[in-house]
Amino acid sequence: MTDPLPPRDHGGGIDAAAARHGGAREDWLDLSTGINPIPYPVGHLPAAAWTDLPDRAAEARLLFAARSFWGVPEGAGIVAAPGASALIARMPWMAQGTRAHITGPTYNEHAAAFRAAGWTVVEDGEAEVRVAVHPNNPDGRRMPERDIGDHALTVIDESFCDTCPEASHVAHAGRPGVVVLKSFGKFWGLAGLRLGLMIGPGDLCDRMAEALGPWAVSGPALEIGARALEDRAWAETTRQRLARDAARLDAMLAARGAELVGGTTLFRTYAVPDAAALRKRLAQAQIWVRIFPFSATWVRLGLPGGEDEWRRLWDALG
Q1: CB 130 within 8 A of CB 149
Q2: Strand partners, 291
């Protein structure tokens, strides 16, 4: 029996944090992820969403709403999946080749998926595949339009781009080999829903749908996803709130000597003298933030929700 692979570095992990630093899970304020702390209100679901196999009408409603919300170009395909992670894991089989260009630091599941499929991951030089997170996690850098080149496959992960829709590259998703990924876990704050979408050339979307198999997305996810995409007013109000809260977080951390590295309005990455020491101090107050194995100074914070959470963070920063 082979040893299990070590877990990849991610946010979250409140159970482990509580075991190490004390307190019950419900005592903790998790700021280690970039998930909207005030999620989309899912409301009541019809019983059929839970009891019936998902039908074509429910999926068609979701995909129609997605095309309208993101301005998917005519002729481009679109496929729903049980989370963007499911799409990322299958992406290496959407192209032929041996080398994938992925510039770090970035969301590490992309490189892990290609390496698991036998590809070599490089940061420069020739490659058949180009992968970019746009805006990037954890520093918020954006992929210039000029970088959408002539690779056999270009994967643009826009999991955080719904905070800045004007920057989206969805308009290019009809080009050969260009794929855009969307996630419901971040902007809509529904990570547990496990819903992601792939937008791209019809042939690639057909292959992805075949790889995912039938009934890949649950009935509740289809219903809630369609509702959320149809609710333009909620999306616009949420963008405005996130922008205000990100500015508030920047001011709070600047007052404690932190320097902004970058981010989105869902998370902010700062440089501090000792990131591990800051995380330990906040953990003693049952507040969990993200640090990185590649940097001794970077720390990433998501947004607090209610005023009690903001006061709690301010007090813990000392």
Answers
A1: yes
A2: 299
- CATH superfamily entry for domain 14-39+233-317: Aspartate Aminotransferase, domain 1 (3.90.1150.10)
CA gap 16, 139 in Å, rounded: 25
What residue spans in the chain does CATH classification 3.40.640.10 cover? 47-231
Residue type, 88: I
**Cα separation of 163 and 239, whole Å?**
6
Amino acid found at 161: C
Query: 90 Cβ partners below 8 Å, 6+ apart?
Result: 113, 208, 211, 212
pTM for this prediction: 0.94
Task: Give the Cα separation of 248 and 45 in Å (integer).
Answer: 35
> Using CA atoms, how far apart are residues 3 and 5, in angstroms rounded to an integer?
6
DSSP 74-125: TT-EEEEESSHHHHHHHGGGGS--SEEEEPSSS-THHHHHHHHTTPEEESSS
Provide the CATH topology of domain 47-231: Aspartate Aminotransferase; domain 2 (3.40.640)
pLDDT in tens, 230-264: 999 999 999 999 999 999 999 999 999 999 999 99
Q: Give start-end residues of each CATH 3.90.1150.10 domain in the chain.
A: 14-39+233-317
Peptide bond into 135 cis (omega under 30): yes
